[in-house]
């Protein structure tokens, strides 16, 4: 059947139909390198089969319907890729170590359609290869973006270039029935002019750089487009952390942490420098003059006072008592007798 579809496409091209099949999805457009650094191509026998998102350097988050029933040796993951024909500078192809699907995954209703792929070596991050944080849907934002290498038309094959499209949410998925759509575990999103298609399963649904869901299923990509169903990621935070570990994101939180660390350091430095010299100089200045003023005063006074009176006392007493007394009584005695 797929061979007939491919032949039909080739005949259409030869008859003058548009050659760029990626433009067949109305409202969709080609993505550029590095625009979605978290997207991953999950490949079966080295051919794109589904998409996924980089959870961390060792795990890829995707849909259970993409990997259920396959051996790890049959799968590989390619990150940092935009085109399957023209390799990107940061493109990496990594073998799969193991696959963990949600234990309560239902392959009929696609409830709990979520899985984690373990890689046999860590991803090397760069400008075009990054992990993405996940969270609950922001109800204040009525749109979200999804991307992938899915078919450009119903029954078609995967395309070679990464494409993106904007979807509206939440929408009404009551047409699927109560057993097919569960609001608590699923997100209903779509557009009147665009739709995910085959091989887009596992693609992330993103709001403002935060993943809120992964593509699970739809009723095809024939206009008028019926909304698609995405697995609601926030519901599975406990299981995701238990299998893949806690995310160590950093894309938006790391710069904030760095800036907050620098700010308290700047005011602390001047405070230490200001207090230390002031405290040290003040006690030193008054102590020095007190020591210098007191010793010189008593030392100078004592030396001058003791030395000055001692010298004249010795010189005055010796000549006065020795010379005049014996000479004076002897002279008058000789003069009186004759």
Structure description:
The chain is an alpha+beta fold. It has a domain of 227 residues: Thrombin, subunit H (Beta Barrel). 31% of the residues lie in helices and 22% in strands. It has 6 helices and 13 strands. The protein has a 7-stranded antiparallel beta sheet, with no helix packed on it. The longest helix is centred in the C-terminal third of the chain and has 41 residues. Keywords: Disulfide bond, Signal. This is Peptidase S1 domain-containing protein. One of its GO terms (molecular function) is serine-type endopeptidase activity.
- What's the helix-strand series? HEEEEHEEEEEEEEEHHHH
What is the CA-CA span between the terminal residues?
183 Å
Radius of gyration, in Å, reads 47 Å
Specify the number of helices: 6
Instruction: Quote the average pLDDT.
Output: 76
CATH topology label of the domain at 20-246: Thrombin, subunit H
Percentage of residues in DSSP E strands: 15-25%
Instruction: Tell me the CATH superfamily of the domain at 20-246.
Output: Trypsin-like serine proteases
- CATH classification, class level of the domain at 20-246: Mainly Beta
Which strand order does the major sheet show? Answer: 1-9-8-11-12-13-10
Summed up, what is this model?
It comes from Daphnia pulex (Water flea). With 338 residues, this protein is of the alpha+beta class.
Any chance you could write out the topology, listing elements then pairs?
Blueprint: H1 2-14, E1 29-30, E2 39-44, E3 47-54, E4 59-62, H2 64-67, E5 75-79, E6 92-101, E7 115-119, E8 143-148, E9 163-168, E10 186-189, E11 204-207, E12 210-217, E13 228-232, H3 237-244, H4 253-293, H5 296-322, H6 324-336
Antiparallel strand pairs: 1-9, 2-3, 2-5, 3-4, 4-7, 5-6, 6-7, 8-9, 8-11, 10-13, 11-12, 12-13
């Amino acid at each position: 059947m797929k061979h007939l579809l491919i032949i039909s496409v080739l005949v259409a091209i030869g008859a003058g139909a548009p050659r760029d099949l990626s433009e067949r999805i109305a409202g969709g457009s080609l993505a550029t390198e590095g625009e979605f650094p978290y997207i991953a191509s999950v490949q079966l026998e080295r051919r794109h089969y589904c998409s996924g998102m980089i959870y961390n350097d060792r795990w890829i988050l995707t849909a259970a319907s993409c990997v259920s029933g396959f051996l790890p040796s049959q799968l590989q993951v390619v990150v940092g890729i935009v085109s399957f024909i023209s390799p990107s500078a940061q493109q990496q192809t990594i073998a799969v170590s193991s696959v963990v699907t949600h234990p309560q995954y239902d392959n009929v209703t696609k409830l709990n359609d979520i899985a984690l792929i373990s890689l046999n070596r860590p991803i090397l991050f760069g400008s075009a290869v990054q992990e993405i944080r996940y969270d609950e849907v922001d109800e204040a934002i009525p749109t979200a973006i999804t991307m992938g290498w899915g078919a450009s038309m119903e029954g078609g094959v995967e395309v070679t270039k990464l494409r993106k499209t904007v979807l509206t949410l939440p929408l009404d998925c009551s047409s699927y029935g109560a057993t097919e759509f569960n609001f608590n575990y699923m997100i209903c999103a779509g557009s009147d002019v665009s739709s995910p298609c085959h091989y887009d399963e596992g693609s992330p649904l993103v709001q403002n750089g935060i993943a809120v869901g992964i593509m699970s299923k739809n009723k095809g990509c024939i206009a008028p487009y019926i909304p698609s169903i995405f697995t609601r990621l926030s519901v599975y935070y406990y299981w995701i952390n238990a299998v893949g570990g806690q995310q160590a994101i950093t894309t938006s939180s790391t710069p904030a942490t760095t800036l907050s660390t620098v700010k308290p350091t700047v005011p602390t430095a001047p405070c230490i420098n200001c207090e230390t010299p002031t405290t040290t100089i003040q006690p030193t200045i008054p102590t020095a003059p007190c020591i210098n003023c007191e010793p010189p005063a008593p030392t100078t006074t004592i030396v001058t006072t003791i030395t000055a009176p001692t010298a004249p006392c010795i010189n005055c007493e010796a000549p006065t008592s020795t010379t005049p007394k014996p000479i004076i009584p002897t002279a008058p005695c000789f003069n009186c007798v004759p």
